[in-house]
Amino acid sequence: MQLLVLGSAAGGGFPQWNCNCRNCAGVRDGSVRARPRTQSSIAVSANGTDWVLFNASPDILTQFKANRALQPGRALRDTGIAGIVLIDAQIDHTTGLFMLREGKPLDVWCTPQVREDLTTGNPIFNVLSHFCTVRWQPVQTTPPSPFIVSGAAGLRFTPVPLSSKAPPYSPHREDPHPGDNIGVLIEDESGHRIFYAPGFGAMAPHLEPFLADADCVLIDGTFWTDDEMIKLGIAPKTSRSIGHLPQSGPGGMIELLARFPKPRKVLIHINNTNPILDEDSPERAELTRAGIEVSYDGMLIDYQP
Question: Element (H or E) spanning 208, and its range?
Answer without folding.
Answer: helix 208-212
